[in-house]
From TrEMBL, chains A, B:
Highest taxon, organism lineage: Bacteria
UniProt cross-references to SUPFAM superfamilies, sorted A to Z: Protein kinase-like (PK-like)
Enzyme type, top EC level: transferase
GO-annotated molecular function: homoserine kinase activity
Protein name (database record): Homoserine kinase
Keywords carried by this UniProt record: Amino-acid biosynthesis, ATP-binding, Kinase, Nucleotide-binding, Threonine biosynthesis, Transferase
Pfam family name, one: APH
Family of the protein in this entry: Belongs to the pseudomonas-type ThrB family.
InterPro entries: Aminoglycoside_PTrfase (IPR002575), Homoserine_kinase_II (IPR005280), Kinase-like_dom_sf (IPR011009), Pseudomonas-type_ThrB (IPR050249)
Gene: thrB
Pathway stated in the Swiss-Prot or TrEMBL entry: Amino-acid biosynthesis; L-threonine biosynthesis; L-threonine from L-aspartate: step 4/5
Ranges where the Aminoglycoside phosphotransferase domain occurs: 27-253
Enzyme Commission designation: 2.7.1.39
Length: 312, 312
């Protein structure tokens, strides 16, 4: 259960007077979500999702919330933030930065079909296209400099063979530069638990709080490493091809992107291998996250090293 | 049937490449609508409404489309325009200015209940509040100067007693000034056929192409004159009270507004009495409108003259 900050009906009703969304009927905590507190808020106008940010500060939110608004305005399936009477998307509630967004249909799918992978790929490309006109910028805080420095601090505590494998990957990635590839707004965390599906239709991408400006192909690789990965940890060829076909039906990869694709798949795996190692070896005091298994992404990276067919 | 401009699938599919809303699945003409051509457009991402503007020019659209986007962002139930790859809401299609908006649920209700009138009143007040932060402005082209000049050109052709009654009303309104009342964005045409209802919930206000900046109370009076009017042409007391109660649950009327209310109800009736007389006596060549009965609003105005209880 991920309701870290409790909000009462009276407190919420008072806060809602800054909005034009009718009278509060009920609120209900949402169990899903790892980092923030979420509630369903029902008013006389409809259902919304209330998010209280447990880590991000109020002045860090405009990039993410204006991005979601921009993408929604362009027809990308994602929650649309609701603006208040000061035309702001966020303000303090119960001492935390808080926002309201539209409530989407659909649900998470643990074991997606190839058709669902294709739909996700298509929507990701639509998101990349729609991001072209978004004016704000945010650097990726978890790029190569971050993973190299973070890995360097962990080798000494890791099993020797795992450390050698990690070091090999960091050294491999240091020989690559992706700066010549098309860049734009990336979701950067488009795992299965951040997409709502309604049958084979994408009802919405959610949780844009890792979004940033980076190489578009990196986003495709992050998505593929999760969406096409089966229960056994192996990448399923059909799902990988479907996701790429969906993506390329909207935005065909360039020659440079195709050439960079094998190493980008490994870079995308490395990023989550390192962050999971960090969560494992350096758990934050009071951190409200599930520790996820770093081995999953070690296996992804090591299998990509041995792969010869990259589904292009 | 109100499809004045035909659009083919190939032509539409080519135009849709400027959007990030997936691949065209089908399009279907919409019979409702008097002035513009509307289609349902189904894509792999969902259902949208395509409007081709038969009268408004491309450079006249930003006020209306940005207003709808602003209101939707603030949680007011209305269609949200979809932006294209140039971040524009409209461009030419089949030689006409055209836009895509989100498709709402709900349907028109010919004989609304009091609860529905209350919900409409509440949403109208929410719209007025949300309009406070909308930066663009548009004068009302059909204000007192317009109805006085228009009526003056019609008296000679009208039945003498009708002309006398119209003249009496124009003269009455010329003695009133509403400039001291709260102003803002008004829909200015919130009749039953411009609201979609889903049970007792307002699913959406539509057809914002008469919206402008004017006295807020005028919008309340326009809505009441239609929503509370029964089959017999009389205003139903319960529905009138319900609409006002819904409105005032969000934005209580000021003392000045309460004092102006009886004459404002007549002003709102006069505006449609005159426009319907104009359509009747001066039908535009090739105009694609149903001629609506001017007597309906003559009766509304004359009954308001005789009324003593204005439901406040």
């Amino acid at each position: 259960m991920s309701v870290y900050t409790s909000v009462g009906e009276a407190e919420l009703a008072a806060w809602l007077t800054r909005y034009s969304i009718g009278q509060l009927k009920s609120l209900k905590g949402i169990a899903a979500g790892i980092t923030n507190t979420n509630y369903f808020v029902d008013t006389t106008h409809g259902r919304y999702v209330l998010t209280l940010f447990e880590v991000l500060a109020l002045d860090e939110l405009p990039y993410y919330l204006e991005l979601m608004s921009h993408l929604a305005r362009h027809g990308v399936a994602c929650p649309a933030p609701i603006a208040d009477s000061t035309d702001s998307y966020a303000s303090l509630l119960a001492g935390k930065p808080a926002c309201l967004v539209t409530c989407l249909t659909g649900s998470e799918v643990g074991a997606p079909s190839s058709a669902q992978c294709q739909a996700v790929g298509e929507m990701l490309a639509a998101m990349h296209e729609a991001g072209n006109t978004f004016p704000k910028r945010m650097d990726n805080p978890r790029g190569p400099a971050w993973w190299s420095a973070t890995a360097a601090g962990l080798y000494g505590e890791m099993d020797a063979s795992d450390a050698a494998s990690l070091h090999e990957e960091v050294a491999f990635q240091e020989r690559y530069r992706f700066a010549h590839l098309p860049t734009g707004v990336v979701h950067a965390d488009l795992f299965r638990d951040n997409v709502l599906l309604d049958g084979e239709r994408v009802a919405g991408f959610i949780d844009f709080y890792y979004a940033c400006n980076d190489v578009l192909l990196y986003d495709v690789a992050i998505a593929l490493n999760d969406w096409a990965r089966g229960e056994d940890g192996n990448i399923d060829d059909d799902k990988a091809r479907a996701l790429l076909a969906g993506y390329q039906s909207v935005r065909p990869l360039t020659g440079d992107e195709r050439a960079a694709w094998p190493s980008m798949l490994r870079a995308a795996g490395l990023r989550f291998w390192v962050s999971r190692l960090l969560d494992f070896y350096r758990p934050q005091a009071g951190e409200m996250t599930y520790t996820k298994d770093p081995k999953v992404f070690q296996k992804v990276v090591e299998e990509h090293r041995a792969r010869s067919d990259f589904w292009l």
